[in-house]
Specification:
alpha+beta, 8-stranded mixed beta sheet, 5-stranded antiparallel beta sheet, 11 helices
């Protein structure tokens, strides 16, 4: 078994060829891409020290994009608070993945991260998981664009009211740094008094601006705009078969027209028209549930050092 451990962005660079061989868009999300993890390792290095483990044998290969939280010593996965769907990368028999987890377990630290999707759980073996939250979604196999619009005709009426007031829908590229900075700064101050507002932290806002630019065509920003005024903004990521609705912002001055929900409605209809699923991502909120056709159950991983060591040592079935 060949083990490589990267504890700095420069060392992570050496893992890029193996990382990109392992990453298959149909099995993983953008949160497992080399680019985003490399950026997170550098941008948040003073908060999380990388501990990326690559294990390779003749019959398998695995990569765990781990990090140690500097304030607590707890192990987690790269991405600070900003990566929504977490996972390890793996191909072949179980040997490499077990070996990689053994390297993490040797540190004798607890491990925690969220949120794993159902298809990811098979790669986590015996490591303890717990129910976490649901991710509302609209599947293009459950409803097409016309059916969706017909089911939510009231939102269509709200959309027409906004158009009459000079507000128009736009699709923007994720490389528009000025627009992204505006969305995240407005998002931060809109909910400035909420303790869970992660975007009050300027470092996180700057990361999102840089990450969206780096993702290129995989990041799209949908907006409702009146002249040069931003009424609502939606940051999305494109996966193999789905569009992920990551951040929604709306101007409270337009609240009576429900611009945030209208923007999600319009972006959803257009996404279904493209033959893609709409993933509203972690957390059930009224505006999501109102539009969703199904829920994806997510889990969190939480293991003590002892539980992690026991799980890593137990035999696993081949993935």
């Amino acid at each position: 078994m060949r083990i490589t451990i990267a504890t700095s962005p420069a060392e992570i660079d050496a893992l890029r060829p193996a990382w990109e061989r392992l990453y298959e868009p149909e099995h993983y999300t953008i949160f497992q891409t080399f680019e985003l993890n490399r950026m997170a390792a550098e941008h948040f290095g003073d908060r999380e020290t990388p501990y990326v483990v690559l294990a390779e044998s003749d019959s398998s290969i695995a990569l765990i994009p781990a990090a140690a939280r500097n304030h607590s010593g707890e192990m987690t996965l790269l991405g600070e608070t900003l990566f929504d769907y977490r996972d390890v990368l793996h191909a072949g028999s179980h040997e490499a993945l077990s070996a990689a987890w053994n390297e993490i377990a040797k540190l004798q630290r607890p491990f925690a991260c969220f949120a794993l999707r159902p298809e990811a759980r098979k790669r986590w073996g015996h490591i303890p998981t717990h129910d976490f939250a649901n991710a509302p979604r609209v599947g293009h196999d459950e409803m097409d664009c016309d059916e969706f619009r017909a089911q939510h005709n009231k939102l269509g009426m709200y959309c027409r009211r906004l158009i009459k007031r000079g507000v128009h829908f736009h699709a923007r590229a994720g490389c528009n740094r000025r627009l992204l900075r505006m969305i995240y700064e407005n998002k931060a101050y809109q909910f400035a008094n909420e303790p869970n507002n992660i975007f009050l932290d300027p470092r996180r806002r700057e990361f999102m601006v840089a990450a969206c630019e780096a993702l290129g065509d995989a990041c799209e920003v949908f907006t409702l705009e009146s002249d040069t005024h931003l009424v609502a903004g939606l940051v999305t990521f494109r996966d193999e078969t789905a569009r992920l609705f990551y951040t929604i912002y709306f101007d409270p001055a337009w609240a009576k027209f429900s611009p945030g929900t209208v923007l999600i409605y319009e972006a959803t209809a257009r996404t279904l028209g493209e033959g893609l699923d709409c993933d509203y991502m972690t957390g059930e909120y009224g505006y999501k549930n109102r539009l969703a056709t199904s829920m994806v159950p997510l889990v969190r991983v939480e293991a003590s050092a002892e539980e992690l060591a026991q799980a890593a040592a137990r035999p696993r079935a081949a993935a």
